[in-house]
Task: structure prediction
Amino acid sequence: MRCHYCDREATYEAEQRGVVVGLCESHFKQRVEELAESDELAELRDRIDIESSE
Result:
């Protein structure tokens, strides 16, 4: 399988609802960094902190 973003060999594969997408090492790292900095992840962290303290 090839990377979704470039023509390199995919190192990682992600599947959702039957759709499989491959990512090479560098694009995988790039996506993880983007997700780590996302507002959605910050909101999820806040929710988990609130729920675990109740």
About this structure: Residues 10-47 form one domain. The two ends are 45 Å apart (CA to CA). Helices lie at 25-36, 39-53. The chain has two helices and two strands.
